[in-house]
Specification:
The structure is a single chain. This protein has 187 residues and is mainly alpha-helical. The protein has one domain. Helix 2 crosses helix 8 and helix 3 packs antiparallel against helix 4. The longest helix is centred in the C-terminal third of the chain and has 21 residues. It is globular, with a radius of gyration of 20 Å.
């Protein structure tokens, strides 16, 4: 008769199996979300992020890449009828000139993309590649229009986007006044 495993051993086996099934993150072995990076301490991470974005922007986009993103979103929100409705609206009505509009809405796009950027989840970031490229290009166009209108130094544009910060991240911002930091969201 085979040996019987007690509950502690089964729990440990389940924990090991669960950890083995975690998505691979090439930037870090930690999956903790972090919105702010101190560039004095994490220059290599910043460079990897910049290189990743450069590669994603150079990749051709296709309907297949859009479907890959939507499939991931549907899987994540499979039990949320409200978000599934928004995902279907995106599928039917999205156009590349509406990327900023979709990104600033209270919807799956903003939440999933920023979570992937904060955790540096390369798998999810890759699945959002077509949207990232559209968002980047639309922001470039808007920036160019803005710069044509306002070339004098006395003009400022103030924009706001709410984001929760943990107390330690707020302290990190305070500690880095006058130094370089990187935000792990799409700015």
């Amino acid at each position: 008769m085979g040996s019987w495993k007690g509950l502690p051993e089964i729990a440990e086996d389940a924990k090991v199996l669960s950890n083995d099934m975690m998505p691979m993150n090439v930037f870090s072995l930690s999956h903790h979300e972090k919105s702010i990076r101190d560039l004095d301490k994490e220059r290599a991470v910043f460079m990897w992020n910049q290189l990743l974005m450069d590669v994603l922007l150079r990749m051709p986009t296709s309907d297949e890449s859009k479907m890959e993103m939507l499939t991931e979103c549907e899987s994540y929100y499979r039990d949320n009828a409200k978000e599934l409705e928004k995902i279907n609206d995106f599928r039917l009505n999205y156009s590349s000139d509406a990327a900023v509009s979709w990104y600033t809405r209270d919807s799956f796009v903003y939440r999933l993309l920023n979570k992937a950027l904060r955790t540096r989840d390369i798998d999810i970031i890759f699945k959002f590649r077509f949207f990232i490229a559209d968002l980047y290009r639309q922001l470039q166009k808007e920036h160019s229009k803005f710069m044509k209108r306002f070339t004098d130094d006395e003009y400022f544009l103030t924009v706001y986007r709410g984001q929760h910060l943990k107390a330690d991240e707020l302290q990190e911002l305070k500690d880095n006044i006058g130094r370089l930091i990187s935000m792990n969201t799409f700015i």
